[in-house]
Structure formats: C-alpha cells, structure tokens
Amino acid sequence: MSDKIEELIKEIAVIHGIAVSRGDPIFVLQTINNRLLQDSAAALDGQLDQLKEELESLSLRWGSDATGKAEKILNAALAASKSAMSQIMQEEAKRAAATLRAEVDSALTALGGPIQDAERIGRLNIVAAGITLAAAAIALWASFG
C-alpha cells in the first residue's frame, strides 16, 4: 500500500506540479476511494456469482425443455411413420392378393379345357365299358342258350 501512495505522490507532482506529503488530507479521500472500490468489486462479484447461477439454471431448464420437445417431435414422427408404413403394407397386401387371385383365375381358365376333355374321355370310357359288358353278357347268353 505504501508503494501505491508513493506512486500517487509522484504522479500528483508530475501532473499538477504540487508537492503533497503522506499526511495530506487528500489521502483520506484516496483511502475512502480505495475502500469504495473494494466494496463495489465485492458487490459486483456477488452479483456476478448470482447471475452465473441463474444462467446455469436457465441453461439446464432450456436443455431439459429442448430435450422434451425433441422427444415429442421424434415420437410424433415415429407414430406418423408407423401409420404410413401400416397403410402402405395394407395397400401392398391388397395388391398382392389381387395379383394372386388373377393368377389363380388364369390358371383355372387354362386348366378348364383339359378338364373338360378328361371328363369327355371318362364318359366315353364308361360308355365303352358298358358296351363291352353288354357284349360279354350277350356272348355268355349265346353260349348257354
């Protein structure tokens, strides 16, 4: 502190051309001024600490709010994509069923001709068997009679 006073005495002499001593009443003002500066600095430090705490609190709250909003957005997007996927799957299932039905109908139509031919051949075979049976019966009757 005495080094500061010595520097101040030299500065006053250089700037103002006035010589003052350590006992000059002007140094009472210097002491008061230093005390006020220290008190102001301490008060500012306290206010800065309080401001820092408030900013940290706000930052945490904003972070949690942002996280909550991001989760809501993600959940909404997920629900929308699930709904869209379900709708697309239903449409594709209907389309696949229609395609399968058309293929089966086409295959049945293609098999219709050969089935009718097989039925005709079967009927002809029954008629031929009946004629053969009748001929055998006539031959048997003729051999006994």
Structural class based on helices, strands and sheet pairing:
mainly alpha
Overall strand count = 0
Query: Uncertain regions: pLDDT < 50 for 5+ in a row?
Result: none
Radius of gyration: 56 Å
Portion in helices: over 70%
Arithmetic mean pLDDT:
89
Describe the main β-sheet briefly.
none
- What best-fitting shape do the alpha-carbon axes yield? rod-shaped
Tally of distinct domains: 1
- Percentage beta strand: under 5%
What's the order of the H and E elements? HH
How many H/I helical runs?
2
CA distance, first residue to last residue: 163 Å
Would you write up a description of this structure?
- This protein has 145 residues and is an all-alpha fold.
- It has one domain (2-113).
- It has helices spanning 2-16, 26-144.
- The model has no long low-confidence stretch (mean pLDDT 89).
Q: What descriptive keywords fit this protein?
A:
single chain; 145 residues; mainly alpha; rod-shaped
Which helices and strands occur, and which strands form pairs?
Elements (H helix, E strand, L loop, with lengths): L1 H15 L9 H119 L1
Short description:
The protein has helices spanning 2-16, 26-144.
